[in-house]
Amino acid sequence: MQLDISPFVACTPEETVYPGVRLYTVSYYSQDLLVKAALAVPEAYFQEGACLPALLYCRGGIKGVGRVRPERISQMAAFGYVILAPHYRGNEGGEGRDEFGGADRHDVFAAFEMLRSMEKVDKGRISVYGFSRGGVMALFAAMECKGVLSCVVWSGVSDMFLTYEERVDLRRMLRRIIGHPRKQEDAYRDRTPLYRIDEISCPVLIIHGTEDENVGVEHAHKLADALTRAGKPYEKWLAQGASHLFVGEDIEMYTRKMFAWLDAKA
């Protein structure tokens, strides 16, 4: 059985990297821009009568840094989830310009609608996941997209002002794309989900390494504190000694625990 590609403008099969999971590159429109995403689909999707949960995967980084890894989204799809991972505008041949959490968040919102349009995706079981910079994108999706079941923020940014302070190596890029936080304060505030956390209407899972050198664990604490003040349900899992990229037993264990958490929200 072939994939129903009707929600997308284009769909190109890619080489399989994980048993039982098919990979595609898809194109779709976001604010009149043709953008691209990676799609990982478990074989169970192609069985008659299938109705699977889905996870909207928000990548980190920008351009070649933090790009979507086929191995990672395939590993996730093997848990029985359809995984759609936007590359964001201006990346991987997509039109437009990556704004690092600005208007490019609409690429995530549009991808959510693509998942809702897929024939065998359970529309009541679509969650959102954000890694690193993707934490910002995922949190805004949890605010803006009607019907998001739950939100996972893994090693995620929650405060763009803090990112500017802690990442000296990114300041040139941030000034080029967003500006200086003292001169363009509104632009940084607009990209910081903490100021709108009361708009989240789904449970949030925070996963963060205590020794994260790229996105300090303070982002996790700030997010948890904001959710507490807003009275929103959440869990915070701190991985002792883990850095930004979990490795070995840590990534396997926390991935399994994360999907158990997602399954329990259905």
Question: Explain this structure to me?
Answer:
The protein has helices at residues 70-77, 105-117, 134-144, 160-166, 171-177, 185-190, 218-230, 248-264, and strands at 10-14, 21-30, 33-42, 52-58, 82-86, 121-131, 151-154, 204-209, 234-239. It is α/β, with parallel strands linked by helices and 266 residues long. The chain is globular, with a radius of gyration of 17 Å. The two termini are 27 Å apart. The mean pLDDT is 97.
Features:
globular
Quick description:
The chain has 266 residues and is α/β, with parallel strands linked by helices. Helix content is 31%, strand content 24%.
Largest sheet composition:
9 strands, mixed
Q: DSSP strand (E) fraction? A: 15-25%
Instruction: Estimate the mean pLDDT confidence.
Output: 97
Total count of strands? 9
Q: Can you give the helix content as a percent range?
A: 25-40%
Overall geometry comes to: globular
Biggest sheet: strand arrangement: 1-2-3-5-4-6-7-8-9
Order of helices and strands, N to C?
EEEEHEHEHEHHHEHEH
| Separation, N- and C-terminal Cα atoms | 27 Å
- Given the structure, what is the number of helices? 8
Topology of helices and strands:
Layout: E1 10-14, E2 21-30, E3 33-42, E4 52-58, H1 70-77, E5 82-86, H2 105-117, E6 121-131, H3 134-144, E7 151-154, H4 160-166, H5 171-177, H6 185-190, E8 204-209, H7 218-230, E9 234-239, H8 248-264
Parallel strand pairs: 4-5, 4-6, 6-7, 7-8, 8-9
Antiparallel strand pairs: 1-2, 2-3, 3-5
Helix pairs in contact: 2-3
